[in-house]
Design a protein that fits this description.
The complex is a heterodimer of chains A (606) and B (573). Helix content of chain A is 60%, strand content 10%. With 606 residues, chain A is an alpha+beta fold. Classes of the chains: A alpha+beta (606), B mainly alpha (573).
Chain lengths: 606, 573
């Protein structure tokens, strides 16, 4: 007989009302209902805000949203960006003037922001890494100094640092422009007007040189692989780096020479009477004009004049008991000869030759060109390297230059060969139709060889620098402040990253017999980098956001320009939305990248 | 000496004591090996030599003394190394200053450099400086801060920098400080020791601290309108309110507690308790406001009156206190795992909205003047994308979605844009006729900003709590509220104290940004010095002073955080 199990009691079905109630009062259902309620409340809140805003704007009496047809609609909120900006922006890469639109102004600001952020990120990384390593130095003084730097910049507000740099360091501590001293002996001049630095300009032959450089890189790689294979097969060890670098240098130097001797695109046009058939003909011509045997003498004679003027400024020259001043020299009360005689007897010199400014200007090469053209940069750089004095007459358009050339204001026309060929026809036609006596019967065009890269070095001329590039004080102060401040944070991140690698790893690397460099490169860095990089990137993001402080010291970045637009157009809401959207998209892009990087780099633990 | 020479020859066996000394190893250690080491040594050596010669002409005496001390210390260290008999000092010297020859040169270079810096600063700040309050004397003594400091402007304006326009009503500031001292001193005794848990002084102190913000506001700002007359009716109503509060408190404390802890009773108790907490302070404020219309603590316009360090501190403290609970809530919201809104609700609703709005788009696109305008006219297209994001990213969890969006949006924009938005836009958002003063708008912007960052810090702490803690709390039968209050949050917050304090230090520093929206904080008052007729263009010295002030306060916060961390880590195993 099978054991009978006790009958399972049938669950009693509750009545429908209770079932519905149970469903409704279930925690999950309540949760969902609560969330929906919350969303509805949030939406209602925003509607309330929107209604208030609309009412407030109406009361201000200005319509923010005028459309093309004159009606007022929310969707035309951004149309005002098309109208003229009517304010000036201090600096920027775009061709901007007050007649351009608000859009252009914003783009200019955004590009300025990008500029300071891009340079800032690079410098911050260098400074932060150095300071972070210095923080771990085994020299107590070095680590203490690094800690002082980090503590100071982390515990004081960035805006005060910026003010201090801008109003104290730049205004009072740095020398005046004409007294600027080169930094570390390099042609970089720090003054209270900004930073003047040398620039490199790529000429049309640069492409050939770059092709050789790429060739050199490929060749170096091939050589490296070959040497590695040789090492593997023979078991001998080669000094690979020196050979690879040497081969690369040889190829790129050959490339430079090839590019230099390549058919040039630049040239000069001059009257046949001047007999310039080659660049080398210029030198004897100028020497003959100045009546000297060597070009260097000209510079020497100019320097003599400057020495004389310095003596005048110092009040050391007296004629007839009266102290000679620069004004007296300029208006001719005292001639240069008289002053020079006094100077000779003062210094006990037997002879003292010099060139006055008028003499230099009269005899110098009169060069005319299109402003900021590569051809003129190349030509003047070559004149500078020889020491030939010249007067540069730059116009913004080629036809104006031609007019100057025809009227005889200048004797040498610098430009592209194709442009010169066209302008030569103009010059000769002008002579025929004019009917007056021609300045010259015919004109030579001479090609000037161009190196792939021309350096332009800032030189002090009068009270200003010519050549090279200049960073404004606004930009420089902004950059220095951002770099010093963010660098302190990066230093802490680098330090923490290196310390996060356990001591055992170092010891294990030592036990394997790796040297200091290998230990750092192969063991420590790969592990610390994955700790360092996420916070590092958020520091870069911070730098970008902090660049909005440019408004405090007047650097024309995105936020300063936007603020000006708000003040001028009264469209606060639209501009604010645009700014926030811009920054949000930047940070969202970066955080998406960060998440991707994190998932990629985290070491899979076993 | 003889022993030293013997050891230098490598004859350690004859002298006997200590491990063997090998001159070759020592030289390799001390000078280094390899091309890199030699180049570095030559570079540092040359640099040190050049700087030494330069300093020798600038300040002969101190340079020679430094050099002699350096040489003696170096030789002493080497001697100890040779005879292998280090004292504590030589060991420290070897480890920290003279670990090799290049380091020794570096030490000399840096000591000379630091001494030159200190000498330069002392010359600037004290010896060549002028402390006179007379502008003419100041300007004669120095020239553009290059020769010496002019402390005159700072001395003349120091009260301004601290309290700005409240300097005529210093009793307000003193009252506030007195209140803080009166509360702080007993708190240091009663709040720190567990012996006093539930003792009456501690209860009184807790209540006082809870009430102290109102008192602070009363001292610094005053309640009500300026010159408000005394009203009997107001007084009677206030007293009535207070009595009602007391009665509620009595009910909740004495009557309801005895009836057991049924759910409804519990709820009623909380409500009554809350009513007491709200009603009594309101009544007290009302009474004070009634009497203070023209008294010493009359109401002032905070935008105009508050300034200097006082404003900086007010903004920091308000934002810190207010953002903390908000930040914790946001962190919990972002990590919440409640059942999300199911897809069959999310998608239909969003699709319906899309269709509803997109019907107007063609007309709007045609009306738009720019390409961007035409694109913007089709904005409803993003609605289904949002629905997709809500469903995929958050499983329909609206709490997590909204918290996340808030946190990321606020963290993505610069603080300064929020500050400008708060002063320009917030008043537009409010109903007509309601306008908040700038101080409160800015304080709210700081709070909203700080809460987002704080939420991320707290979330980091929550993530670090092992799953077992949650499960243990569940198995104890704690409800969600108690689980977080008693188990999770205390541990999570302890982990992230350094991060939170770091965030607060950042907030304190960021208050200097209110200068840009026209409030008179410490930095702004300092900037104003340079436009006073007596002290035109003088900025350097005031900036130095406020850099020091900011540095000291921020360092103190960092120091306290480290201390707190150590204290709380005691119980950690």
């Amino acid at each position: 007989m099978a054991a009978t199990s006790p009958p399972v009691p049938k669950p009693e079905r509750p009545n429908p009302l209770v079932r519905v109630l149970r469903l409704v009062f279930d925690v999950r259902v309540l949760g969902v209902l609560g969330q929906i309620l919350a969303v509805v409340l949030v939406v209602l809140f925003f509607r309330w805000v929107a209604t208030n805003t609309a009412a407030n704007i109406d009361q201000l009496g200005e319509s923010q949203f005028i459309c093309r047809d004159g009606s007022s609609s929310f969707r035309c909120a951004l149309d005002f960006l098309q109208s003229d900006a009517q304010f000036d922006i201090g600096e920027g890469p775009l061709d901007y003037d007050p007649s351009k639109s608000y859009w252009t102004a914003m783009a200019q600001g955004a590009l300025n922001t990008l500029k300071v952020v891009a340079i800032g990120v690079v410098l911050t990384t260098i400074l932060g890494t150095l300071a972070g390593i210095a923080r771990l130095s085994n020299n107590w003084l070095v680590s203490t100094l690094a800690r002082t730097y980090v503590d100071f910049f982390r515990n004081t507000p960035l805006i005060v640092q910026l003010f201090f740099i801008f109003f104290t360091v730049f205004a009072f501590l740095l020398p005046k422009l004409d007294e600027a001293i080169p930094l570390f002996g390099l042609p970089i001049y720090l003054s209270n007007r900004g930073i003047n630095y040398p620039t490199l300009t790529l000429m049309s032959t640069a492409g050939i040189w770059f092709a050789f450089i790429v060739l050199g890189l490929i060749q170096g790689q091939v050589l490296w692989m070959y040497l590695r294979r040789q090492e593997d097969t023979t078991g001998r060890s080669f000094a690979k780096w020196p050979r690879v670098i040497l081969s690369f240098l040889v190829v790129s130097i050959i490339g430079y020479a090839v590019a230099r001797s390549w058919t040039s695109t630049h040239g000069i046009m001059s009257s046949v009477a001047l007999r310039i058939r080659d660049f080398d003909d210029i030198d004897p011509l100028v020497r003959q004009r100045f009546g000297v045997n060597f070009t260097d003498e000209i510079t020497g004679l100019i320097d003599n004049r400057l020495t004389l003027e310095e003596a005048v400024d110092a009040g050391r020259i007296r004629v007839g008991g009266e102290r000679v001043t620069q004004e007296m020299l300029d208006d001719g009360t005292i001639t240069y000869e008289q002053a020079a005689e006094r100077y000779m007897s003062l210094e006990g010199l037997s002879s003292f030759d010099y060139l006055t400014e008028e003499q230099v200007d009269a005899n110098a090469l009169q060069v005319c060109t299109v402003r900021e053209s590569k051809a003129s940069l190349n030509f003047t750089a070559r004149l500078d390297s020889i020491g030939i004095p010249y007067v540069l007459d730059a116009e913004s358009r080629a036809d104006r230059v031609t007019e100057n050339y025809i009227s005889g204001e200048c004797e040498i026309f610098v430009g592209n060969l194709s442009m010169l060929a066209a302008e030569r026809q103009v010059v000769e036609l002008a002579r025929a139709s004019d009917g007056t006596i021609p300045t010259a019967s015919a004109h030579n065009i001479v090609a000037i060889t161009e190196p792939p890269v021309v350096t332009s070095i800032p030189r002090l001329q009068g009270l200003n620098f010519v050549g090279g590039g200049r960073l404004t004080t606004f930009f420089a102060a902004m950059l220095i402040g951002l770099v010093l401040n963010t660098g302190a944070n990066v230093a802490e991140i680098v330090r923490a990253g290196i310390q996060a690698v356990s001591k055992g790893q170092t010891e294990a690397a030592r036990a394997l017999g790796l040297n200091e460099g290998q230990r750092l490169r192969l063991v420590i860095l790969p592990q610390s980098l994955q700790v360092i990089i996420p916070p590092l990137i958020s520091q870069y993001l911070n730098l970008a956001k902090n660049s909005t402080l440019g408004i405090a010291i007047g650097y024309s970045e995105f936020w300063l320009v936007s603020q000006t637009i708000i003040n001028q157009s009264g469209r606060a809401i639209q501009v604010m939305v645009l700014i926030m959207a811009a920054f949000l998209s930047l940070s969202i892009t970066i955080s998406v990248f960060l998440n991707w990087y994190n998932s990629k780099v985290v070491i899979k633990e076993r | 000496m003889a022993a030293l020479i013997e050891r230098l020859r490598g004859n350690s066996a004859e002298t006997g004591s200590g491990p063997a000394f090998n001159p070759a190893y020592f030289m390799q250690d001390f000078i280094g090996a390899g091309l890199g080491a030699y180049v570095w040594l030559a570079f540092i050596g040359l640099l040190a030599l050049l700087y030494f010669v330069g300093q020798l002409s600038a300040a002969p005496l101190s340079t020679i003394i430094v050099f002699v001390v350096w040489l003696v210390a170096l030789l002493w260290m080497v001697r100890s190394e040779v005879v292998k008999n280090h004292s504590t000092v030589t060991q420290w010297l070897q480890n920290n200053l003279f670990s090799n020859l290049a380091n020794a040169f570096l030490t000399l270079l840096l000591v000379l450099f630091i001494i030159a810096m200190i000498r330069g600063f002392i010359n600037y700040a004290f010896i060549n400086a002028s402390f006179s309050l007379d502008p003419d004397v100041n300007n004669e003594v120095t020239n553009f801060g290059q020769d010496g400091a002019r402390w005159g402007p700072v001395r003349a304006n120091f009260t301004n920098m601290l309290v700005f326009r409240l300097k005529d009503e210093l009793h307000r500031v003193w009252s506030l400080l007195a209140m803080i001292v009166v509360l702080l001193v007993p708190s240091l005794i009663y709040m720190r020791d567990d012996r006093y848990r539930n003792s009456w002084p501690r209860r009184i102190l807790s209540w006082s601290w809870l009430f102290s913000p109102f008192m602070a506001l009363f001292f610094m700002r005053g309640f009500g309108e300026e010159g408000q007359p005394f009203q009997w009716l107001g007084l009677i109503m206030a007293v009535g309110l207070a009595m009602l509060g007391i009665a509620f408190g009595f009910l909740s404390d004495n009557v309801l507690e005895k009836r057991g802890e049924a759910r409804a009773v519990q709820l009623a108790r909380s409500v009554l308790s809350l009513a007491r907490v709200v009603l009594i302070p309101i009544a007290i404020i009302w009474v004070i406001a009634n009497f203070s219309g023209s008294g010493p603590f009359y109401a002032v316009d905070v935008d105009q009156r508050w300034g200097g360090l006082v404003l900086t501190m007010v903004l920091s403290i308000v934002a810190i206190v207010a953002s903390f609970p908000l930040g914790v809530l946001l962190a919990l919201g972002r990590r919440s795992e409640i059942q999300g809104v199911p897809w069959w609700i999310v998608y239909p609703v969003f699709l319906a909205l899309t269709i509803f709005y997109i019907r107007e788009s063609p007309a709007a696109a045609a009306n738009a003047r720019t390409t961007l305008g035409a694109i913007v006219a089709w904005w409803p297209i993003i609605l289904p994308l949002i629905a997709f994001a809500i469903h995929r990213g958050f499983k329909g969890n609206m709490v997590a979605a909204m918290s996340t969006v808030y946190i990321e949006a606020v963290r993505g924009v610069p603080l300064i844009t929020l500050l400008f938005a708060s002063t320009i836009l917030f008043n537009l958002f409010l109903p007509q006729g309601l306008e908040l003063t700038d101080v409160w708008l800015v304080a709210s912007a700081f709070t909203l900003f700080s809460a987002a960052y704080l939420a991320e810090n707290v979330r980091g702490g929550l993530q670090a709590i092992p799953r077992g803690q949650f499960e243990a709390a569940d198995s104890l039968g704690l409800n969600n509220f108690d689980k977080y209050r008693l188990i999770i949050l205390p541990q999570a917050l302890r982990i992230v104290i350094p991060a939170i304090v770091g965030q607060f230090i950042g907030l304190f520093k960021d208050t200097s940004l209110v200068t840009l929206v026209g409030l008179f904080d410490l930095l702004d008052v300092t900037n104003k010095i340079s436009s006073q007729p007596d002290w035109l263009t003088i900025r350097t010295e005031p900036y130095i002073v406020i850099l020091i002030i900011y540095f000291v306060i921020a360092s103190a916060m960092a120091w306290y955080s480290r201390r707190l961390e150590r204290q709380l880590a005691v119980g950690q195993r």
